[in-house]
Here is the input.
Amino acid sequence: MTIRERVFAADQDLLSRLSAAGKPVLGRVMSGFGRSANHGTLWLAMAAALGATRSKWTRRAALRGLASMVIGSTAANVITNRLLSRGRPSGTGAAGRQLGHPRTTSFPSRHAASAAAFATGVALEMPDLAIPVGALAAAVGASRVITGVHYPSDMLGGVALGTAAGLLTLRWWPRRPTAPADAARPRREAPASPDGAGLVLIVNCSAGTASTDLADSLSKRLPAGELLVASADDDLDAMFRDAATRARILGVAGGDGSVRLAAGIASEAGLPLLVLPAGTFNHFAADLGVESGDHALSALRDGDSVLVDVASADGEAFLNTASAGVYVNLVNAREELEPSFGKWPAMMIALIGVLRRGSPVDLLVNGRRRRVWLLFAGNCRYEPSGAAPAYRPDLADGILDVRLVDGSQPLARTRLITAVLLGTLARSRVYQTWSCSILQVASVDGDPVPVCLDGEATQVRSATALVKRPRELLVYRPAPGG
Here is the structure.
């Protein structure tokens, strides 16, 4: 017997045993599992529930689960089913019933592929959910066999395909370490202030999750501190500068843009900075290891702190990244669409538009004329080195991580997109990387250079320098295990 014949014989034997067992109640339960996963409904609902939480890890788990499901489902529906043709089992399953008469081929099970892909994606981000989500995915896969819609090997093939799809996401989107980035220990810790004495904290209510409710809660927990609430109409830079004149500790509750302003002023004034993540992305807080307001206040209570690098562009401080080129167009387009669609949908719509209609810009980079799709400078080295920057292993390494997408290469846009999709960006000739402590950037025509600092669009002079300021900012962070 060939391997295919052996598999078919084993399938038939197991289906016969299940049919002989004849458990109607089990069949009805399994039938419900199968229907709940039709068109990915069960997994979409679970992703929505995970995404509704305030934990960045559960949101990442939801996004990776959905991305895995899309890959697994596409592979099962578009690729595998076109290459392999196998009829459905004849007769009825152990439940004595069959769920309709599907017209598609039997191998692999698309339900099992989607279930395994989603479960794998979620487990990669949150191992604690591996058992419950994996058990639910296994039940969905088993339901396709018990109800007689698929052979056992169809289900196993779908599980293998879905698991591979989940693991494949690591090629484009590496897992973020759960441990915070390294940083320098200061000679003298920041002052401990359990009740907020000496703290002037500004809550930017125009940021992602900041609100007056958050401000009220913080004022109760920090009775000796001074708390100010900022709205979209306020001059946030002026508020921070005024606060720095009377603060012993400067604090900010907001997103990366708010933290950037506060960090620049705190470093100039020689003040320690308290960061409470209350934005949409909170990239700096995530790398720092401050996951919530409770973490920040715990560090404030004990005076736990570290020294981190600051970078500047034309004197404007940034903590994460400075970018020029099409990314500026992307941010501007997103901000125009955001009031109508929300941040994430606006980002996706803007990205499609920029990829279709965008064009490279001419810049002088370290005195050399370059045609640039994207110029990226990270405050400290970002990982992974050959893909989209995701996280930093060290916040005080003294370097700028520079990445340039060369627009002068033939078919640069097509080659860039292809390299990203195939996960081969590190080997693409349109993608260049290096590290330095100073990066000179200038426009060719003498106009101001549009840039994004920590995700917010602005402009710098026609010729400017991106400069590292090593270990300049003292910032609160909980001690390990705190």
Summary: Confidence is low (pLDDT under 50) at residues 92-100.
